[in-house]
Write a structure and sequence with these properties.
The protein is α+β, with helices and mostly antiparallel strands. Helices cover about 45% and strands about 20% of the residues.
């Protein structure tokens, strides 16, 4: 006997969707639909010109209006199309059952929230996305996931925290998992960067499954997309100008307060910059003690030997250089946009270029020398491209 019956529908307002009925009691049903297909039909009916991109929107002359229409898709609209087709298709509950109070109530089994950013130069999109993957393989760590989803992660938090890179054909995608939910950025149709948050269990975020909770899930899903993109932008675009570099490395005076410069190559400064990277996305900032423990560990020092006074001195240096700012009416600090760029620049340049290059004398192998020669040639080409060659 069949276990399930599928009814495939082409709706005037929602486009393709399907209903799935179970053949045995209590006859659960599932409704599967795509909000992008609903949006495309709404735009067509209202004569708003647009260019589709698979199940999304590639471009439109009226983007603000398109977004305004998309925001009108709510729980009531979804429930209405469900009731509409229950009246038209056969299902297990006869009129007598419905009169006795047996009715379907929609709940949320799975919800996807997508952000599509179309690239101005699609040919370079693949190179950009591969760089994003390479720079963000640690996103699945618990400390990163609690920042992306704004949820506290402890040892008792269920689920596997991991980052997976999957390749379908030649198109890679990056999968970051949190409990039963995941975030997936990928290169869509060779033209756009698509970021999707899929929530498979609303209780992961202490929200019920009833359809009326859709707005709360929407806030969580799109916030996760934005935080992930912020993480990727910090690691991908961390260049700072010469003026900023001079300002950071030189002493500074602000309202009769003086602070020493943050010299590149100073182990203590690099420990500070690495520690700041850990708090770049912390929504509530960080405290004196939290940063102190990390800075001491990065210097291979016991926290007791790195005094509270030394940490206060370093916080003052960071604050006067405008790399951090104090959270009003609190003893917490948060990293500024400039601070995030400077910290990432220091950490990446030192860890990925200077330290490996200086270790060549220790290895002294022909293979290492050839790798350094390729690096030198690539650097020379880069300097010519940005017109900084001597």
């Amino acid at each position: 006997m069949p276990n399930h019956y599928y009814v495939y529908i082409l709706d005037r307002d929602f486009g393709p969707l399907f209903l799935k009925f179970c053949s045995y009691f209590p006859y659960p049903a599932k409704l599967c639909l795509n909000g992008h297909e609903w949006l495309k039909r709404q735009l067509t009916q209202r004569q708003v010109p647009f260019e589709p991109l698979d199940n999304g929107i590639r471009s439109s002359d009226e983007p603000t209006r398109v977004q305004r229409i998309a925001d009108t898709l709510d729980a009531a609209t979804i429930d209405a199309v469900f009731r509409k087709w229950l009246r038209r298709v056969p299902h297990p509950f006869a009129p007598a059952h419905r009169a006795a109070g047996y009715r379907y109530q929609l709940s949320i089994l799975q919800r996807e929230f997508a952000l599509t950013q179309v690239l101005d130069r699609p040919l370079t999109g693949r190179c950009f996305f591969e760089e994003v993957i390479r720079e963000n393989l640690d996103l699945g760590r618990p400390d990163q996931m609690q920042l992306i989803f704004d949820r506290r992660v402890t040892r008792r938090t269920p689920g596997r925290f991991r980052t997976r890179v999957l390749t379908e054909g030649v198109v890679p995608s990056l999968h970051v998992e949190y409990k039963k939910s995941k975030v997936k950025p990928y290169h869509k149709e060779g033209q756009a960067l698509r970021t999707e948050t899929t929530i498979n269990d609303t209780y992961d975020f202490e929200i019920g499954r009833a359809l009326r909770n859709l707005p709360a899930l929407r806030e969580i899903g799109f916030a996760a997309n934005r935080r992930l993109l912020h993480v990727e932008s910090l690691s991908h675009d961390c260049l700072i100008g010469e003026d900023h570099l001079r300002a950071v490395t030189a002493p500074v005076s602000v309202h009769d307060q003086r602070a020493a410069g943050l010299r590149f190559g100073d182990p203590r400064v690099h420990a500070l910059m690495h520690a700041l990277c850990l708090f770049a996305l912390a929504p509530t900032g960080f405290r004196h003690r939290e940063l102190r423990d990390h800075v001491a560990q990065l210097q291979s020092r016991d926290p007791d030997t790195y005094s509270a006074g030394a940490m206060t001195y370093d916080l003052r240096r960071l604050r006067l250089h405008r790399l951090i700012e104090r959270v009003p009416r609190s003893h917490r600090y948060r990293i500024t946009a400039t601070g995030a760029q400077v910290a990432m620049f220091y950490a990446r340049l030192y860890t990925r270029a200077l330290r490996p290059a200086c270790s060549l004398h220790a290895s002294a192998s022909a293979r290492a020398q050839r790798a350094f020669d390729r690096l030198d040639a690539a650097l020379a080409h880069f300097l010519e491209e940005v017109k900084l060659a001597a």
